[in-house]
Write a structure and sequence with these properties.
single chain, 171 residues, mainly alpha, two-stranded antiparallel ribbon, two-stranded antiparallel sheet
Length: 171
């Protein structure tokens, strides 16, 4: 229960008592604290899916179109700064392709079929989301095991220090 409440709150209207629910559907949209419980993707996955669908759209465009030129063009005026450069949209698309197991070599063939690309992106994003969820659970389990297995540190007696100027001892 939320906010450290030990008992379930009750709401009574007339002689009818409302039940507490964990999942509530209102006009077709599910409202829940856990998105995976209602079958929704995380915000990260939704953004990846949108980026990849747009990438397919741009890839199918003809040469000379401004969005395609901007996505595949390079800077002609100057180099990128040294150090770790800022993440570009192109880099985020490459990361999404890799996480969805879509190779850049088959990108042209995959994007040429609109409905096939849409299905490939959807399944790839779902598989990537499931993999992220599994890794998150594994990290959580390891963290809990470390906290349970960590022995209480034994009390080490603090050595006393005697000041050379005043002769006081401190511990």
């Amino acid at each position: 229960m939320g906010q450290d409440v030990s008992s379930v709150p009750t709401i009574t209207i007339g002689e009818h008592t409302l039940d507490v629910v964990n999942k509530f559907t209102y006009l077709g949209s599910a409202i829940s604290s856990n998105l995976s419980m209602v079958g929704m993707l995380s915000m990260f996955s939704i953004l990846s899916q949108r980026r990849l669908r747009w990438l397919g759209h741009v890839y199918r465009m003809g040469d000379g179109r401004i969005p395609k030129d901007v996505l595949y063009g390079d800077l002609a005026t100057r180099k990128r700064p040294t150090g770790r450069p800022l993440l570009r949209y192109k880099d985020a698309c490459k990361r999404d392709l890799k996480s969805c197991s879509i190779g850049p070599a088959d990108l042209e063939a995959a994007t040429s079929d609109h409905s096939g690309w849409r299905a490939a992106v959807k399944t790839g994003v779902q598989q990537a989301e499931e993999g992220r969820e599994i890794r998150r659970e594994e990290r959580r389990d390891r963290r809990q095991q470390r906290s349970r297995a960590a022995p209480a540190s034994p009390v080490v007696p603090v050595a006393e220090y005697t000041c050379g100027k005043c002769g006081r001892s401190c511990s």
